[in-house]
Amino acid sequence: MTVDKDNWLSPTWWRQAVVYQIYPRSFADANGDGIGDLQGIISRVDYLKDLGIDAVWLSPFYPSALADGGYDVDDYRDVDPHIGSIDDFDQLVSALHQRGIKLLVDIVPNHSSNRHAWFQEALASPPQSPARDRYIFRRGTGPNHDQAPSDWKAAFGGSAWEPVGDGWFYFHIFAPEQPDWNWANPEVRQDFLTTLRFWSDHGVDGFRVDVAMALAKGFDAEQPEILPSQAEMEAVPIGPDHLLYDRDEVDEIYAGWRRVFDEYQPPRVAVAELWAEPSPRKARYATEESLGQAFFFDIVHAGFNPFKVRQTIDEVLGWSRDSGSSATWVLSNHDIVRHASRFGLPDVDSDSVWAGPDRDRHWLMTGGKEPVEDRCRGLRRARALTMFLMGLPGSLYLYQGEELGLPEVTDLPDAARQDPIFFRDRGFNVGRDGCRVPLPWTATGSSFGFGSGAAHLPQPTWFGQYAVAVESDQDDSTLNLYRQALSLRGRWQGAESLEWIETGDPQLLHFRRPGGWQVAMNFADQARPLPLAGQSISLSSWPGIETAVVEGKDDLAVGHWIPAETTYWWRDSQVS
Ligand code: GLC
Ligand code: CA
Prior knowledge:
Oligomer: single chain
Number of strands: 18
Bound molecules: alpha-D-glucopyranose, calcium ion
CATH class of the largest domain: Alpha Beta
């Protein structure tokens, strides 16, 4: 399929779009209270324009007690007063649209916050009342009904059932402050359609759907049958028979959303967040009848391993083709350790994401010591793999700060941490705050130009080196690499096809795109031969093509080698 990216009303604008994720509380703080806000984003729209992105994905900005970084929503149709107002939101939409940038917002349909008006109404209402039916309540067990209905564990640690004091419990996959909605309830369904229309009417171009595979549950909490144990539940693969994840009934929910998306011109788009891997079933969420696109995080688990990377690319392109959608490429977001740091770790070839269970595993492997990160190597590898993925057909999701090559902040003081994972899994899993530290805009100054006061999460002293102002002035900075790569990519994203070129070298991946664009990546820690005679490199992921090539191999002609851990882009010389 050929995509017309330059037509604002094109219904396919998203297929190869570069989408930049903003975690609003950590992007830019206009009023100096330490919390990023909508006016802060508005003040940086030219930065986003210069970067060369097509759309912004805004993580939750709704009123919230921040029990889970805003993914605990008090009111789906308002703006957190700490972040701005609906007026500010409208200003942001028009500032972005004026610059040709679309806007996706995060929608959190699996759970609300415990401060949501409907949850408060449920608490104030008797068991088995219509108000309670909007959530998942179940009677406790034991003679006094004071025991949890089952031994199910919440994703952030602790029980998945919270007592409400009258012999009943409510169910939450995540924190107790995030009660799960009952999607079998028609009012809940209707209310989300109202929310989708509300933001679409405010000019939003699409939605990122949080925990998209969990909405339909396979148990009726009010029925007396015995619930399986956690172990029994986990023994069932994620899919149609699992009680919580990826049941077939989600399809019907999203078919209803699709009808709302199609009321707009161009139709509103959506991307499903799903962490089940590997999962060919994900393609279901990406069809035209459903959400239209799905995140394929499989590439996050491919590490820096050329075999896994190639295999994942082929799988993801295949699943996307099956669904009629386009692929999604993502290496970082607000839930995982920044990839510049992941790739600097010693076990980088494993699927470690150094967060959640993988981080725990890393701690165990290193005898409880903090892993030693090789920052220079991590950045070199991050730039290479990012530029490799940028060359692929599909859309690309970038996370704020990765364009600066920003590493994870691994040594936040405990007192500064905010993530519920840290509090609920204390001492074992430090949580996700390290990738959510506010961005550095200037080399010095309070909060490095993030705002006029201190930032809500402390920034380390070395943050200034990665500041936008510093990197803007360095030709070979990561920021300038992203700018050049995105601008070049925009010129050759037409037909969504790719042809692998067999190199005979397992460490060297090479493909060609329509129009004669070629991309090669050397995963090895040494230079490798690459027949490049007569071609001139358009872009290299690491500065100093010449010296890197000749280093240690000065008997060899420049232009026949690709340096270690580097990606090259070039164009066939015979193509004009
Ligand atoms: C998603 C979000 C994550 C959040 C969770 C619960 O995975 O990306 O940040 O904690 O859902 O809403
Ligand atoms: Ca602020």
